[in-house]
Design goal:
The protein is mainly alpha-helical and 287 residues long. It has helices at residues 7-10, 16-20, 57-62, 69-76, 80-88, 99-107, 114-128, 145-149, 153-161, 164-176, 182-187, 190-198, 205-215, 226-235, 249-263, 267-281, and strands spanning 28-31, 34-39, 42-47, 131-134, 137-140. The protein has a three-stranded antiparallel β-sheet with strand order 1-2-3, with no helix packed on it. A two-stranded antiparallel ribbon has the order 4-5. It is globular, with a radius of gyration of 19 Å. The termini are far apart. It binds a DNA duplex (14 and 13 nucleotides) through helix 7, helix 9, helix 10, helix 13 and helix 14.
Length: 287
DNA sequence: ACCTGACCTCGTCT
DNA sequence: AAGACGAGGTCAG
């Protein structure tokens, strides 16, 4: 039996450039050689060739260092295209985000491109978040649920959210009144947690999957956005039937079921590699 | 139940 | 330089 690789020693294979530039996170910027990122009320700071020390609990958690990536990637490599994508971006990883920030980020993402999403989130932080100085630089932390729940829709709109402003306010209220509780959602199975999320105004199948995958421990979540549909159509026309029409909730679920059957329990990881590969191919902007 | 159009705004392209 | 276009979807009719 092969000795398991120590998680702390294998993690420096993580490539922060690739991981941050993969559409999972929006509030990161590179200054000189360091990445600075907002995650809830924290500012994460990382160097390119960062090695994780035991006391970096928060960073270890964020970058999912304790996932057994050897095992996961071995399983993913059963699929040829995912295998190629892993070969191209071996240091790409999923991250584990602050749930509230992730929730709002993807509500705000609907029908938008990444530069717009980033701009809106930055504006929300500036208007509703508190300031923190790190390395002599000023950062604005992500607002708390109460900050956005108590804000006026008009003020939220000033951040460039358009019709999404109402959704951000009501979704934040759902946190305050307990209709959405992230710790409970983490404990539920994928399907049950997803049903709860979709009850929230502004959250559909795709956004729910992003929240589940990037912040609520559901690695079988596989966000089916226009890119992923294009990818499935392009490389997997033998495996999946993709119609050109927009998916209804039911057809979405059906396709997701087939996708998990094909890619396995770590389908979410597969999605991240495929998404990264295809968007790089078209030179799409990340941040 | 499924299908279609409308939707705010902004970065990018011409 | 101004105008059109489309973007990691969702909701209502």
């Amino acid at each position: 039996m092969k000795q398991p690789v120590s998680n702390l020693s294998s993690n420096f294979k993580i490539n922060f450039d690739h991981t941050i530039n993969s559409g999972q996170v929006f509030l990161w910027e590179k200054i000189d050689t360091k990445w600075y990122g907002i995650d809830g009320r924290r500012v994460l700071v990382l160097e390119n060739s960062q090695k994780f020390k035991k006391n970096m609990k928060y960073e270890i958690d964020f970058f999912r260092i304790n996932d057994n990536f050897e095992k996961i990637s071995n399983e993913l490599k059963n699929d040829n295209y995912v295998r190629d994508a892993i070969k191209m971006f071996p240091g790409l990883r999923l991250v584990r985000q602050n749930p509230f920030q992730c929730y709002i980020s993807f509500i705000v993402s609907s029908n938008s491109n990444i530069p717009s999403i980033k701009s809106r989130l930055q504006n929300l932080c500036k208007m509703f978040g508190s300031k923190k100085i790190v390395d002599g630089k000023a950062f604005f932390l992500f607002p708390e649920p109460s900050d956005l729940a108590n804000a006026s829709i008009l003020d939220i709109k000033k951040c460039g959210l358009g019709y999404r402003a109402k959704a951000v306010k009501t979704a934040s209220l759902s946190i305050l009144n307990g209709k959405i509780d992230f710790d409970s959602l983490k404990k539920m199975d994928y399907q049950t947690a997803k049903k709860e999320l979709i009850k929230v105004f502004g959250i559909g199948s795709k956004v729910a999957d992003c929240i589940l995958l990037f912040s609520l421990e559901k690695l079988e979540a596989f966000p089916l956005d226009r890119w992923m549909l294009r990818i499935l159509q392009k490389y997997y026309s033998n495996e999946f039937q993709i119609s050109t029409k927009t998916l209804t909730e039911k057809t979405y679920d059906q396709l997701h079921e087939n996708v998990v059957e094909h890619f396995g329990a770590y389908a979410g990881y597969a999605q991240q590699f495929l998404f990264k590969m295809e968007r790089e191919l078209y030179k799409k902007k990340w941040l």
